[in-house]
Amino acid sequence: MKVRISRRIGKFTGDRRVVLLLVALGLMVAGRAWLADHPQHNPWAPLDLRDPVGWATDTKLQALREDVPACRAVLERSAITHEALQPAGEGACLREDRTRLADYPLSPNTPATTCPTAVAMVLWERDAIQPAAQTIFGSPVARIEHLGAYSCRRLYGRDTGAWSEHATANAIDIAGFVLEDGTRISVLRDWPGEADKARFLREVRDGACGAFATVLSPDYNAAHADHFHLDMSPRWSSVCR
Question: Whole-prediction pTM value?
Answer without folding.
Answer: 0.85
